[in-house]
Amino acid sequence: MNPLFSVAPPTAEIAGGAQRFPVRRIFCVGKNYADHAREMGGDPLREPPFFFSKPADAVVSGTADIAMPSRTADLHHEIELVVALGRGGSNIAAQDALATVFGYAVGNDLTRRDLQADAKAGARPWDMAKGFDHSAVLSPIRPVAEIGHPTAARIWLSINGAIRQDGDIADMIWPVADIIAELSTYVGLQPGDLIYSGTPAGVGRIGPGDLVEGGIDGIGTIANRFV
User: Fold this and answer.
1) What is the pLDDT of residues 192-206, one digit of tens each?
2) CB–CB of 78/108 below 8 Å?
């Protein structure tokens, strides 16, 4: 058989069951916490969050060992609340947006920071800085039917036991409903889309052998060894 026709589409784990979540697309929100916007040299009072993408097959389990990616000497962690959509639409009103959500998870938006800096300096796209293999770490998705729509919860990340990021999802500049509504004015959202909703301050370097752990209270945890 031609290998082309035996490739399975990417899926993600759903907590508490055998079913898998079919991943269609991955969207990410930039500078959605004021402290991180300042950390990256931005002004959260003037700059609204913006969107970029990762390929669907960048998803990797929140318990997997992850190989250090090539072409970087500055791999960074970014712990995030991830929104998994069970319904879609275009130009969705903010008051209707949460009805599209299937569930929530914990993500780590891995970033080749040196490649990103070079891309910014040259006014080039971020694709190779953000969209590389295994760059979208994801915990099991917790369905809304079980946990509702969290609006306040501690979000944290540690490396080898030392806390690096520590915030609260209540501090997002744009909450989940507004993110979905805004994103749906750019693209028609569909079931299976994931949205990484931004990271608090404290992003930093991951090295070979590091154990990167993180979580959001009431949603889940991740723990990945970088090898």
Assistant:
1) 999 999 999 999 999
2) yes
